[in-house]
Amino acid sequence: MNDFGTVIAPNTVRIERLLPGPIERVWAYLTESEKRGSWLASGDMDLRIGGQVELVFHNNALTDNDVAPPPKYEKYGGRMSFGGHILECDPPRVLAYTWAEGSGESEVRFELTPRGDEVHLVLTHSRLGSRDGMVSVSGGWHTHLGILADRLSGRTPPGFWATHGPLEAEYERRIPAA
Questions:
Q1: FRET label pair with 82: which of 45, 53, 109, 157, CA 20 to 30 Å apart?
Q2: The domain 6-174: what is its CATH number?
């Protein structure tokens, strides 16, 4: 399994991870505010089709021993939130919701499949509006999923911004220009 995400359509990126299970535990880290807040963003989720999704990010506080966000992302370091709606919910296997409603809404889909003691996670982020958006989202998801893997494994994750910068630069190189 390639650690880096791949472009699977002109506006869609897919990233796969093998995570420590069981599947119900990984599902909880996707859906429960406190657990999700330890790797991505806290906030309530009404786990039914059409239910509200609130994502409250605070990337500067996500990990210890970090660096300041780069100027490009300075405004995203503090507390920031946005909403969406559940598109699909089939516990504990599929969760899909809109992402950043009102600002070029895209869609995020998580698919979980048990593999022995591990869980295969497939994250697909679609309807991205531009190549720059794909690069940014890919670097962000890669960094956040690394933190998730570390949290599930009981490891201390490296700094969010310190990790994100080099990963975004690599996605800049990997994602072809239109």
A1: 157
A2: 3.30.530.20
Instruction: Judge contact between 30 and 166, C-beta under 8 A.
Output: no
Burial class (CB in 10 A: 0-12, 13-18, 19+), 95: buried
Going 114 to 116 to 122 to 123, the CA torsion angle's sign is positive
Q: For the chain of 178 residues, list the mean pLDDT of each consecutive stretch of 10.
A: 86 97 98 98 97 95 90 86 95 95 81 98 95 93 97 97 95 90
Burial class (CB in 10 A: 0-12, 13-18, 19+), 58: middle
The full set of domain ranges for the chain reads 6-174
Sign of CA dihedral 40, 122, 26, 54: positive
Residue with tokens 């895209």: 106
Long-range contact pairs involving 42-46 (C-beta distance under 8 Å, separation at least 24): 43/81, 45/86, 45/97, 46/86
CB contact at 8 A, 57 and 79: yes
6, amino acid identity: T
Q: What are phi and psi of 55, to 5 degrees?
A: -120, 115
Six token digits for residue 143: 């960094």
Look up residue 91 and give its amino acid.
P
